[in-house]
Amino acid sequence: MGNVTIRILARHLQLSAATVSKALADSHEISGPTKKRVLEMAAALNYTPNPYASSLRRKKSRTIAVILPEVADSFFSQAINGIEAIAQDKGYHVLVCLTHERTLKEQAILHEMLGGRADGILISVTSETTDPASILELQEKGVPVVFFDRVCEGIDTARIVTDDAQSAYKATDHLIRQGCKQIAFLAISEGLSISHQRIEGYKQALTAHGIRFNGSDIIPCTHDAEENLRSLKKIMRQQHRPDGIIASVEKLAVQVYQACREENIRIPEDIKVIGFSNLVTAAYLNPALTTITQPAFEMGRAAASLLFKALGNKSFSLSQNIQVIPSELQVRDSTH
Amino acid sequence: MGNVTIRILARHLQLSAATVSKALADSHEISGPTKKRVLEMAAALNYTPNPYASSLRRKKSRTIAVILPEVADSFFSQAINGIEAIAQDKGYHVLVCLTHERTLKEQAILHEMLGGRADGILISVTSETTDPASILELQEKGVPVVFFDRVCEGIDTARIVTDDAQSAYKATDHLIRQGCKQIAFLAISEGLSISHQRIEGYKQALTAHGIRFNGSDIIPCTHDAEENLRSLKKIMRQQHRPDGIIASVEKLAVQVYQACREENIRIPEDIKVIGFSNLVTAAYLNPALTTITQPAFEMGRAAASLLFKALGNKSFSLSQNIQVIPSELQVRDSTH
DNA sequence: TATTGTTACGAAAACGGTTAAGTAAATAAA
DNA sequence: TTTATTTACTTAACCGTTTTCGTAACAATA
């Protein structure tokens, strides 16, 4: 297993380790012929640098961490793809850390990052997150942090978000124009900025159409599918069942379909449904689901790009850098 | 930024760095009271160990790498969730490396891994991969490698797969029993073991029912959705259009729906469709898609578990360790 | 000729945590 | 009492790469 190190390479070449290191880094201090010799020998001995030795010495890891609640969701999957594409292009690695929607886990991960494991952080916070302390701490250490999608208030750094309020407005407006009188809004954690924004947009659209906002139309949902299904079915059986539903996250839309099927409620005749979703199958659902489609891949790319700007240029400030990438309303059969 | 290192901690405690290191590792060489003092001071100074220094010295990174073609796919997303769950439990980090289905990229990533970036590798190879050399090289260096789903022949190591041949057999058998006479099989890269297995199962089912296998019923597909759509539509317009279709990977199923819609072909009346898929929305598609559902999360978990067994026990051999987790045929409307 | 610059390389000290080997002091065994 | 053992530490040498500071050798300039 005797790994070939830079010193062994150097010995083979009758050079010093320093020279080899510089040659591999294409330093101007090293002559052309020597560089060539080094490269050739490195290839011949199949030399692979130890990334940890390098990270230790240079105090950079060429790694970014992506911290997010879950990955079994079209939005985050697509976002990871966007992030990884950029990172790979820059020669960086991507550490994926899942919080499973638990703020404690999130804090533990963030604390670990203080050790310098990653040069920068992309984060979409859990729905429980309210305390910005761990993130602030990282910032103070000089680790750039970029939020994407789910941001945490109280921290002044870059954010890549979509136009949550307007999207919810558009969704609500669309339902009203399609004749809905009572629109339920399926919400997740109200502490979350995106949740708050979306609810705001929903309220504004109601107001704009002269419909009085009814607090009980905001349906708080959880991460437990069974539980959500139960409450949805209960709502479907109600006397005054809503005639429109906005699912503020993807999986809630699927749960609505399930609840409607089990309660024999027809979409869109009995109830119109619109979902925030990136499902590639939205158009082929029964009925085809009207969606607010988020630019997941682009958001991932944008977040990573911004992070790399900060990494490449220490004087580049992420502060106040808010990028809003608009979502798109795609009208389909579920709101006809 | 003056990071707090173990030596600074030691100075504050009037101890040596070695003592502190051992105390933090809960070594028996250190007395109870001293351990307590160390822990307290570490917390007070907010000490976070530098993972790279540790990795360099100990020659282990507490990191595993997951190398896969793409992540925007239900199967891989769910698998990552399974893998991450186990890794987190073991105190390991997960590096996600995407090959974008390019074997060259895959080789570059694998070569990098020789440097010791990860203690173990989970890999699902690209559809182009045929050369096992890079993987063998890693094995020779003592890096345990576990295949999941897409394996590469010529390497003797653990594999977590699903019962591809039987699943394809079941799918084909099901279509035949539903009355299909001409069943097209949408295949990706025939070099891939799963592809090969699935085709074998398909052929066997045909034979079992006394149907002659027709080579032109194997439709080679690519990673280019547009291109696939074009060939699918062409097939749909054919004189002797197939009356059954097996989509051997998830996204092909969606493309079939699209092609059928655009060519006004009814599922299941004109053509019955079955797909290898983990779509949570399969049951809500129009029509509900009959699927071979792969145990993605479980496969991820199993692969990671096996890898950690190898990491925890140097004498544990991954060789010959093949675990087959069965897929499930879920009959829905698309094959009625 | 003396001085300054340039080129191409080497020696050695980092980076921060771990660990083998060593050592005083206290305790146990002979 | 002497010797062996245990306890609780410390010293110093790693791990492999990078980087600062030298320094010969040679060229260019004054």
In short:
Chain A is an alpha/beta fold and 336 residues long.
How is the secondary structure organized here?
Two copies of one chain form a homodimer.
Chain A: H1 6-13, H2 17-24, H3 32-44, H4 51-58, E1 63-68, H5 74-89, E2 93-98, H6 103-113, E3 120-123, H7 133-140, E4 145-148, E5 159-162, H8 164-177, E6 183-187, H9 193-208, E7 218-220, H10 225-237, E8 244-247, H11 250-262, E9 272-276, E10 290-293, H12 296-312, E11 322-325, E12 328-330
Parallel strand pairs in A: 1-2, 1-3, 3-4, 4-5, 5-11, 6-7, 6-8, 8-9, 9-10
Antiparallel strand pairs in A: 10-12
Chain B binds a DNA duplex (30 and 30 nucleotides) through helix 2 and helix 4.
